[in-house]
Amino acid sequence: MAVDLRPLPRAPGYRVLARWLMVAEWRSHRGRALVAIATIALGVALGYAVQLINSAAFTEFSAAARSLSGEADLQVRGAQPFVDESLYPRLANEPGVVLASPVLALDVAVPGRTGALPVLGIDVFKARSITPDLIGVPSPDRPFDTLASDAIFLSTAAQQWLNVKTGDHVTLRSGTSDLHLRVAGGLVRTRPGQRLAVMDIAAAQWRFGKVGKLTRVDVQLARGVDRQRFKRDLQQQLGSTWVVAETHDTESRTDRLSRAYRINMNVLALVALFTGAFLVFSTQALGVVRRRSQFAMLRVLGLTRAQLLRQILLEGALLGLLGSLCGLALGYAMASGALRFFGSDLGGGYFPGVQPRVGFEPLASAVFLALGVAVSVLGSVAPAIDAARARPAPALKAGAEESALARLATPWPAFGCLLAAAALTRVPPWFDAPIAGYLAVALLLVGGIALMPRVTALIFGAAGRARGTRRRAGATGTLAIARLANAPGQASIAMGGVLSSFALIVAMAIMVASFRVSVDDWITHLLSADLYVRVASGGNSGDSGGLRPDEQTRIATVPGIGNAAFARITHLTLDPARPDVALLAREIDATDPGATLQMTGAVLPPSVLRAGDIPIWVSEAMIDLYGYELGQRVRLSLGEHGQTFVVAGVWRDYARQSGAIQIRLADYRRLTGDSTATDVAVTVEPGVSVERVVASLKALPFGASLEVSQPGEIRARTLVIFDRSFAVTYLLEAVAIVIGLFGVAATFSAQTLARAREFGMLRHVGVTRAQILAILASEGGLLTASGIALGFALGFAISLILVFVVNPQSFHWSMSLHVPWFVLGTVALVMLMLSCTTAVVAGRGAVSVDAVRAVKEDW
């Protein structure tokens, strides 16, 4: 009788059939479906939570920065931190300028507090029109406190941080001197959590030793003035020593500073989602193999290939949809909890002083919902295509399960992925982010997993042939190897879970260990003195004050100090849209800069420099961000009119990803006239105890303002900061590991239960239940050991991309490669034990089935 192969009616019969199939699969294997849903949910939740946290923090930080600019159209500042106040009347009288408002901005240290208090000195009469939110609110009985020299106005967050209220006094530190100011009131409006202090600009200049100095001038243009043309003409008129910026440049600076960190966090969070995709693939692939005869019967009854393909993809999409919806809810809760209890920077320190709140983001929600569904559907594509291509007649027979996975053994797609990954490692960053590097990692993972069927067949085929030559080979081992050699498709699915999990573990562990060891070596190289002294500035630049020449002399003459090497740390603005570049002036031997700095290559000796050339040594970030090269002549806005310098070497810097420049202290002082110092490297005389010198330094009249540290303390603090920055990385890596082990357990369980007929046949020929469990343990051990070995090779290759491509393109520094053998060995041993245990536990249910009942074809 001829079979009608025309498509079944789509409605209502096909929808009823599709619903029956999905409900039946759910009821029969609810546990594996829940595991797949939970995996997708966790992957989506982690990525969505990180996105919400970063977005909320960046938005709040940008809003706080915009509040400091108010209604200004342009901001004019110097390339150096402070400019002469003669700029202000010049801009105020510029045609097209309606209003100019001078600002003095300082980061001031507070005794007994960690961190800096931002202090703004403003002209209250000018600021009222440009930055009205920053105006102080004095007490009704003291309306002129906004002009008082001893008055300071604090935001609500600053008052809470300092534990003061209106009328109290607060102590601030300017260089080595303490200032006592009266809290005269609050501010009109600030962002939640924004610490800010405001003073009269003349009072701030006087009290903080900045008489005649400004930080910037906010400019408001007349209506009808072309902002871009005015900006271009003004920049040309002022010259390169001045920077004319728009207010949105501040957001661009913050975005560039934190972009690499935010992208890396998002990608790391999505690792769990990638692992979840493989779990969906293994669930669907094994489900298709198990239901092969059912699908063949439906094909015989008239179900078309397209309808069968649609059915399997629909089941995968449903898993992804349910997982994504749960993940969005969980991610929102995780983001809210993280912001409430751990702050907004996720350990990176890029968004200090803000208290963001999580808000629902429709676009991000839609993206992660679609991403979860897409990942689940992609995990179902290969099994669905294979099921649709299967011929119904052979598929109706038992024992055809392995042929369903035969197409997975094709190596060419895997080779294509590996070649594409290799090509992408040579691609430069896109949008200042290592997008191509991440794609290379993903393709390397996909290619490595896709090679598993062929590699599994080769490995266990060779093992089977080798074992066959032995005269006295144990039955248990022989059967285990024979099974793996003759069913490489199913074996590769189980081994693929181990491989993907362990490869990610290896890659992340090597990357983190390489970074940590490199930072440790770097800080050890830099800390060659016995003591390090710095003025407690609260900020990183020390521009609110430093050691005067007479104070430097007193430090150098402290009994027991053999040498005191002074340094001045400040910053330069080279590009208004990029973060500032650190400028470090210190005593450097031009003939051997490597004694002080960790150089990365050749250096220019003084003999090759022309007379009058001034050498500088730049960090690796300057090469990537500004195109500096060894021997290049560059012009920097240092001094009154700027100066040309020669790049004499490139050094490694793990503290400043935005770039840093080192210059000899004598050259810096000659060009700028700034004789202050912020840091001192102290070498103690032989035979003198370090503790004695520390006590003598603290006994100086200004000793309370000095922070004295030993190299071991600085190293320990640096590594603590490193570990805190990577705390979320460790957490996300652990989650990915757990998901991977989940997948291993689910895969072994599904395969073992599907092999009940095979175990029944073995029971008929005399194999005992204990021997079957031993076979399962052997298979689990062999698969896991092979997966660990191949996973290490794949993970090592991925780590090379992370260390030598992703990391330099993200943070603009290089590092050496280090493999944490002990950690990886421990994890490998734990995975091996867990996999063997899982295989045995899952096999107990299969071997408990009655031997006769297990081999029936139609029970």
Helical content, roughly? 55-70%
| Strand elements, count | 21
Q: Give the count of structural domains.
A: 4
Strand coverage percent: 5-15%
The description of the largest β-sheet is:
10 strands, mixed
Average of pLDDT: 83
Rg estimate, integer Å: 34 Å
Q: Please identify the structural class as seen in this structure.
A: alpha+beta
For the termini, the CA-CA separation is 27 Å
In the predicted model, the low-confidence regions spanning at least 5 consecutive residues are 1-9
Helix count, DSSP H or I runs of 4 or more residues: 27
Query: Which geometry do the CA atoms define?
Result: elongated
Helix/strand layout:
Layout: H1 10-28, H2 30-69, E1 74-78, E2 83-84, H3 87-92, E3 97-109, E4 116-122, H4 124-130, E5 136-138, E6 151-154, H5 156-162, E7 169-174, E8 177-187, E9 197-200, H6 201-207, E10 213-214, E11 216-221, H7 227-238, E12 242-246, H8 248-290, H9 292-300, H10 305-341, H11 362-389, H12 392-395, H13 412-424, H14 435-450, H15 452-468, H16 475-486, H17 488-526, E13 531-535, H18 549-556, E14 561-572, E15 581-586, E16 615-619, H19 620-626, E17 633-636, E18 643-651, E19 660-664, H20 665-672, E20 679-684, H21 690-698, E21 706-709, H22 711-725, H23 727-754, H24 756-764, H25 769-811, H26 821-847, H27 851-854
Parallel strand pairs: 4-9, 6-8, 15-19, 16-18
Antiparallel strand pairs: 1-11, 1-12, 2-10, 3-4, 3-11, 5-8, 6-9, 7-8, 13-20, 13-21, 14-15, 14-20, 16-19, 17-18
Helix pairs in contact: 2-8, 2-10, 2-11, 2-23, 8-11, 8-17, 8-23, 10-11, 13-14, 14-17, 14-25, 15-16, 15-17, 16-25, 17-22, 17-23, 17-25, 17-26, 23-26, 25-26
